[in-house]
Amino acid sequence: MQFLYPIGLLALAALMIPLIIHLWNFKESKTLKIGSISLLGASARVSSKSFRITDWLLFILRCLLIILIAFLLAQPYIKKTLNAKNKGGWILVEKSKFPQIFKDNRKTIDSLTKRNYEIHDFNLGFNLLSLKDTIASEREQTVNALKHTALLKELNNLVPAGTSVYLFASQHLNQFGNVLPLTNYKLIWKPVNQADTLSSWITQFAGKKYEANSNPSVVEYKALNSDDAPLISVAIFEEAGSNDSKYIKAAIHAIASFSKRKIQINQPNASFDVGFWLSEKSISQNFKASIKENGSIFKYASGKIVSEKSVINTNSGIVDLTRRIVPNHSFNKIWSDGFGNAILSAENTNGLSILHFYSRLNPQWNELVWNETFVKALMPIIIKDDKFSEFGFENNLSDQRKMPLNQKENIQTNKIEKELKVSTDEPLSTIFWFAAFLIFATERILSFRKKPDYVRS
Fold it and tell me: How far apart are CA 323 and CA 13, in angstroms?
């Protein structure tokens, strides 16, 4: 048993009240005149005190009543773990696809509903569905507001631990995030029957047009136009003794190879599209003047160093972080750590975009340079394109790639690794109110039935 307001137990101090009442009994004597001694005159008034408990039952009842009142003020409750054993489970299915899925899996779904399984929309909110929704006219293909992995993680907060959840959904990779969630329920995935098909679409990136061809295993991109996109010039400055520029150069070479763009580094007497100022010192005027209008400069921020374990969220992936610089300005946040602090922020000044990096491109500060996320995170800085976050990593409805069969088995066998318990708080106020009423009624009955002692002679 736990208490919502434990301070209410201070009311137990009121137990002194019945104790004082029962220990401090005042008994006043009664004067009774008798004929044979009436001429002796009035006798002196006598009172008696008794420091002892004369009625143990009344005393105990009154103490219990005060104890119950104190408990009611503290609002007791018990935390109960919800157990899904011997109870129904959930059926998850996208509402827009429910008619066809029910048609293909009617025997299974009917069997589950007879065992008290509830049907829920596999989408944000997990709204309750009924078999009437199988005749709904809403049949157009829609995209979930959240990916499968985010929805499965959210489900941890809604179903009791150990609940069986049948999921009727596709296993296309474009519906999964980078990390599969650990769940406290038993997930039984029923893949939606979809024929393996080939699909293609046209996309553009960094001034080039590509044709994407997708099958259940891979997506391949083929350039459609041979026209060369404009040359990209990059300037890099680092202090003597530093070796961080090698990570930038390696990433630039990877970006050039992937995008088929020509990128030059530190060409003499050139105007640069992007600059990397790998120093805490202020950017020199000559370096700043060498950057083209509307260009950008990536620079190391200076300030107080904080050592703490966290992550860098680059919007392209998450990497470990061990040291950072405390931001001293509130610029537009681009990357952040696990606590929401800025790791990369943008400041627009005099036609330039200054990117303040509150860490270092050094493995002693973070694991960014060792992670494949590094190349993808730098792409929007090197190549300015509105679709930088999609190309090669597109979340396209035509993407036919599916989860490998061996990966599917791993998910099924590892779903209940996380020992989470879904619990609820059950208040006990009703029980205590009922007990207090019974004790109060009993105490009143005993008090009225108690007869006073009379002096007899």
Answer: 53
Contacts for 183 with CB less than 8 Å, ≥ 6 apart: 152, 153, 155, 156, 415, 416, 418
Burial class (CB in 10 A: 0-12, 13-18, 19+), 178: exposed
Look at residue 418 and tell me if it is in a domain.
no
Q: Which pair of structure tokens corresponds to residue 276?
A: 């990397």
Does residue 205 belong to any structural domain of this protein? no
pLDDT at 4: 73
Dist CA 67 CA 90 (whole Å): 44
Asked if the model's pLDDT at residue 416 lies above 60, the reply is no
Q: Both 62 and 185 in a single domain?
A: no
pLDDT for the residue numbered 456: 45
Distance from C-alpha of 115 to C-alpha of 109, rounded to nearest angstrom: 10
* Same domain membership, residue 237 and residue 356: yes
For residues 228 and 191, membership in a common domain is answered with no
436 and 347 in one domain? no
Residue 145 has pLDDT above 90, yes or no: no
Q: How confident is the model at residue 287 (pLDDT cuts 50, 70, 90)?
A: very high
Q: How many distinct structural domains can be found in the chain?
A: 3
In this structure, what CATH number is given to the domain that contains residue 265? Answer: 3.40.50.880
Q: Is 450 exposed, middle or buried (0-12, 13-18, 19+ CB in 10 A)?
A: exposed
The predicted model scores a pTM of 0.46
In the numeric block, the tokens 């059926």 are attached to 91
Which domain does 336 fall in, by range? 222-382
Same domain, 18 and 104: no
One domain for residues 406 and 444: no
- Number of residues that this document lists for the chain: 457
pLDDT, tens digit (0-9, with 9 covering 90-100), for 292-327: 998 999 999 999 999 989 999 987 788 999 999 999
Check residue 111 and give left, alpha or beta (phi > 0: left; psi -120 to 50: alpha).
alpha
